[in-house]
Write a structure and sequence with these properties.
The structure is a single chain. The protein has three domains: 95 residues, Nucleotidyltransferase, domain 5; 95 residues; 122 residues, no CATH class. Strands 3-2-1-4-5 form a five-stranded mixed β-sheet. A two-stranded antiparallel ribbon has the order 6-7. The protein is globular. A hairpin with a 5-residue loop joins β2 and β3. It is an alpha/beta fold.
């Protein structure tokens, strides 16, 4: 019987495949290694191939597209409702094949090599930044046990450590001084690594036209611009700006029933790292709202006058996300709103 669509359950080295006929019956069940799977699919022609968007999915998706297949990636939570009875790898593959051509299914765009490279830089940088923060907190904790207090903030720790190590009157033991010296060297190494990766990201932003246009938006710099482009490309997967904001979790959650609408706080769904960058950018703009264009500045003043600062920050981050999507999808450059024009929330 002819195979109409295929679902592939991905693993690290073992892949389970299920092929369904036009009537929805399972006609093929096979287990492959990665190389065996690519060889098998090279000689097979099907209407569509489905996979969950997980580790290794983008590489395999590109490889199968190069063979001429229509490959679609789906979020795992949208596939789960199609899993029937007990769970195993073949049942998962059948559920993926069942879900792949549903009319209202949402898909994840397959990322290019350049997008994955930039995303890798961001993920490594985030781990280094968290490690640096943890290191500074550990140094402050060790010194607090010896009666030495350092103010919050990485800069204060960097400035105080050399003097504390050299000060012979603070009663720090020799082993602790040696440990602090090693921790200071580790902190400086992390600083150097983060500075280098920041320079690489900034250089990548300057080479991409889409990032240059995004950086014209107030509050969006090289980090946020490259994170947006590496996450969504040109934004074509989202039908409108609000869909992008909802994907980022910057819109209210909803729990409505019986015709009564109940809105909650922001949903915090989707890409938490990108949402954090937008919120940080929005907070910086709010602190300098007097220096913005007349239209944006007036909108921010009205917003701050009637809303809590945290709510105003999220509202501005939401606005920034929608403007970013609009610039990507239309290929335009940000035009600051003037006071004489009507200030419209995109």
């Amino acid at each position: 019987m002819e195979i109409d669509k295929v679902g592939i359950d991905l693993g690290k080295s073992v892949f389970h495949l299920a092929g369904l006929s036009v009537t929805g019956e399972t006609v093929v069940r096979k287990k492959f290694s990665r190389l065996q799977l690519l060889r098998f699919m090279a000689n097979l022609r099907v209407r569509v191939i489905g996979m969950e968007a997980c580790g290794g999915a983008h590489f395999l998706g590109r490889a199968l597209r190069e063979q001429g297949h229509d490959v679609r990636l789906m979020p795992a939570q949208y596939v789960k409702p199609y899993v029937k009875t007990n769970k195993n790898d073949y049942i998962d593959a059948e559920a993926i094949a069942e879900a792949v051509d549903r009319p209202r299914m949402r898909y994840v765009p397959i990322k290019s090599e350049e997008q994955l490279d930039m995303q890798s830089l961001h993920r490594v940088r985030e781990r280094w930044v968290k490690g640096r923060t943890a290191l500074v907190n550990q140094i402050r904790g060790l010194l607090l046990e010896r009666g030495v207090t350092i103010r919050k903030g990485r800069r204060h720790a960097e400035a105080a450590l050399p003097m504390l190590i050299e000060d012979a009157e603070n009663n720090l033991s020799g082993p602790l001084r040696l440990l602090l010296t090693q921790l200071m060297s580790e902190l400086r190494r992390l600083e150097c690594q983060i500075t280098e990766i920041d320079a690489t990201i900034s250089s990548g932003a300057d080479e991409q036209e889409a990032c240059k246009r995004l950086m014209t938006i107030p509050g969006i710099g090289p980090l946020t611009a490259t994170a947006i482009v590496s996450a969504i490309g040109n934004g074509a997967e989202f039908p409108k700006a609000r869909s992008f904001s909802a994907w980022l979790g910057l819109v209210p959650g909803e729990y409505s029933t019986g015709g009564k609408q109940k809105l909650l706080g922001i949903s915090k769904r989707g890409n938490g790292y990108l949402r954090k960058l937008l919120v940080h950018g929005a907070r910086a703009i709010l602190q300098r709202r007097q220096k913005q264009s007349s239209g944006l500045g007036a909108w921010l003043e009205q917003l701050v006058a009637r809303a809590h600062p945290n709510i105003a920050t999220i509202a501005l981050a939401n606005k920034m996300a929608r403007m970013a999507w609009a610039l990507l999808i239309r290929g335009e450059t940000y035009r600051p709103p003037l006071l004489t024009q009507q200030v419209v929330v995109v």
